[in-house]
């Protein structure tokens, strides 16, 4: 009898072991870095996307020369704001991008848009919504786990609703689902009468940020994954408490989250500032030096500086900087999805032995993000590895 029960227990625990979270056979979500072979991606949708409300925290991220335009159009659908031909090309580019991804054997899924023009209300604030075009900002994928970020712009507070069905489906098939604590977003999260010094050459930190440390807040796009090491961008949308929350949350997985400070008076999202296309290679933005770059160099990584973008500065980037040239997605460590007119960065990739797969996408840049922002890679073949020691 004893022998039989030992065998039963052993069989049971062996089965339980094979279902432990972190086992990729049982999770449809699996991505530890930016470069393993891409299998599945969330692509944002432009439907019902609105020009953002220019609340103080948005002002802290966006260049002042865009304020008048945004003030004039806040809360309106982009399709009613943007020049019709430009908007039509944007939709064509979006459709074509799906075909390119599918042609590469990548499964493409989408969030569910809500009506972003509706006024959103909590006991602490009221705002219009923005969009579900940029899943990178909301979804932090680490291995088998989907982390819903807090989001920091009050206008983006309810964006999580667009991802519920998608996340629930991944979860029901075995992925781990975590939602970071939803913030209160009281007035006291934002420093009163804050104004960023757009000419500042100081490394950005909590003293220069609009955010207080009243509660943890972060956007997922402030994190770049390199296996056991994740780099976190201290920014106008991710405070130290937010990064610390992610650090403590991921520590049991053996992940180390490193805070990075850059010279950038209006930092928002790391993926136009520092990008890691493959193990041992980092690309940085020439206008945004990094205080902690020595960590990568010390580990033997090559750090190369991106060329200036080719797309004209006066192209209608209604929200973002021109550095969307650096906002790319790896198909695997040898091939990169990059905007077709960004020739300089394509040449840099070629020099590094990475083949550019050219994607016409610049009209999609106009409403806020590049190829990396518009996507969130949920499944890549490859396992958790240590690339730093
Ligand atoms: N969401 C990425 C935008 C960052 C930038 O404007 O450089």
What attributes does this structure have?
389 residues; alpha/beta; 3-stranded mixed sheet; 17 strands; 23% helix; binds gamma-amino-butanoic acid; mitochondrion inner membrane
Q: What is the 3D form?
A: globular
- What is the straight-line distance between the termini? 50 Å
Low-confidence stretches: 3-20
Largest sheet: 3 strands, mixed
Cα radius of gyration in angstroms: 21 Å
What's the arrangement of strands in the largest beta sheet? 2-1-17
Mean pLDDT comes to 94
Number of strands: 17
Question: Which small compounds were modeled alongside the protein?
Answer: gamma-amino-butanoic acid
Structural class of the secondary structure composition? alpha/beta
Order of helices and strands: HEHHHEEEHEEHEEEHEEEHEEEHEHE
Total helices: the number is 10
Strand content: 15-25%
Helix content: 10-25%
Function: Catalyzes the biosynthesis of guanidinoacetate, the immediate precursor of creatine. Creatine plays a vital role in energy metabolism in muscle tissues. May play a role in embryonic and central nervous system development.
Family: Belongs to the amidinotransferase family.
Keywords: Membrane, Mitochondrion, Mitochondrion inner membrane, Transferase
Subcellular location: Mitochondrion inner membrane
